[in-house]
């Protein structure tokens, strides 16, 4: 979908990276290496998105860190478009129908805005595992992506929280606040 609207694959990768998780910050060489693109190609697109007001940059010593401009009037629309493109809105729909979900996180590459075709998700709560499996089959078919869930009860979550490295994840569901993002 985005690929047909936006012809620059580098620009699409940048939008995914920065607009999925607005807290993401990255610098030119890091992005170049991650995307497998030349620094010049990435720089051109960073400049275009910055000039359009979609990205901002901050200096960290000699390094320029880029991030999404959450104050831009188009931020929410682009954020939602990226979520739809990656199928996260569909995943949130699944979570909404599972029952007693306390928390849900996107982890791995998706949380970093990289679409590798695998959605890793951690779900904390007391849910029907068979129903989850049925929903995942439908979601994988619709999204054309593999979904790998890890379901934990509250006690397991508290015990494994540190090992899961959830500080690098994207919270997409919180029982107290519903869907996030």
Structural features:
single chain, 181 residues, alpha+beta, Arc Repressor Mutant, subunit A, Beta Polymerase, domain 2, 2 domains, five-stranded mixed β-sheet, three-stranded antiparallel β-sheet, 9 helices, 49% helix
Question: How would you describe what is shown here?
Answer:
- This protein is an alpha+beta fold.
- The chain folds into two domains: 2-78, Winged helix-like DNA-binding domain superfamily/Winged helix DNA-binding domain (Arc Repressor Mutant, subunit A, Orthogonal Bundle), CATH 1.10.10; 87-179, Beta Polymerase, domain 2 (2-Layer Sandwich).
- The protein has nine helices and eight strands.
- It has helices at residues 2-5, 9-20, 28-35, 39-51, 75-86, 88-96, 108-111, 129-143, 154-164, and strands spanning 26-27, 55-60, 63-68, 99-107, 118-127, 146-152, 170-174, 178-179.
- The strands form two sheets. Strands 6-5-4-7-8 form a five-stranded mixed beta sheet. A three-stranded antiparallel beta sheet has the order 1-3-2.
- The two termini are 21 Å apart.
- The mean pLDDT is 85.
